[in-house]
Amino acid sequence: MRLRYAPRSIARMLSLCSVATITAIAQPSFAAGQQSDIPAWLAVHVGQGDGQVARPVLQRARALYMRKVSEGKVRNPCYFAMDATRPNDLGDGKSGGRFYIVCEATQTFRVVSSGHGSGRDLKGVANFGNGRMCAKNFGNAMDSNLTTGGAYMTEETKTTFKGYYRSSQAKNVAFLRSFLQFDGEGDTANARQRAIGGHAAAKVAGICMKKDPQSPYANRDGFVPLGKLVEYAGGRSDGCTSWSASDANQIISMVKDNPTTLYIYPESTDINAVAKAVAAGRSPAQAGLYWNDSCLKEIGAPKFWAKETLEPVIVQYKKDHPAPPARPIPICE
């Protein structure tokens, strides 16, 4: 069931945050966000522990949401936030919660897992790859597979057939994956060109081609792809926001024909400021900044790769290392 905001609720929400306060929240400094207008029920979820959201992440997410509501672009009673400085893969098959679903009209707060961009290692040229646990590299270059922090809005959803997989009942099941497109601004303005959005962290791998001319997904020769369903909620993505299949279904249904905002932390200014503080031997907190402590120990210092400098490198690497001819997909035995 889709919730709707009554006009009175929107007015009450907007009254909580003056223009001056929104401007202050939007600044990258952690210290700048200490004066809080966060309602009491939501404030209990603020912190850096498990199941909590860091204060600057929430404040910026609320500011973005309220701005889009005031502009008439959002009516959805819920908004999203993500803290990409938190760990993702916690080991033993556990994923870290760092994607937040906030519905202030119903006073609900939920934390789910979400993957980060894998980045790439261009051998001998540039290494901007990320591990499974923590993201060190961020950026907005085409074909970089990096997460870009900043402001987004959810847009249309496209569902595509990804192949068949064999279920536990030994039946072949068609896997249809929905992709929720994001639109951005500033560093995230090229989200559509980069095909950045949200989807389930699942794919059909190890594909062979099976003869099934009766399938609605069969190619002109009557074959369909068949493989194994692989879920990677604790893994990485090509820069998109990936969730478990059940969480993806809920999130995408929440914004169907009813867009909302997503704020991803950190932005390029945060990354550069934290890197500068680390280089000077100061902790982010000492510099009035925010970064998750455990991930900072893991990565040493973060780096933002701007598209203006990284895209030419990627383009040249492709020219110097052309992809081999595609091999034909084998026929299933």
Automatic annotation (TrEMBL):
Organism: Rhizobium miluonense
Top-level taxonomy: Bacteria, Pseudomonadati, Pseudomonadota, Alphaproteobacteria, Hyphomicrobiales
Domain of life: Bacteria
Signal peptide: 1-31
Protein name listed in UniProt: L,D-transpeptidase catalytic domain
Keywords: Signal
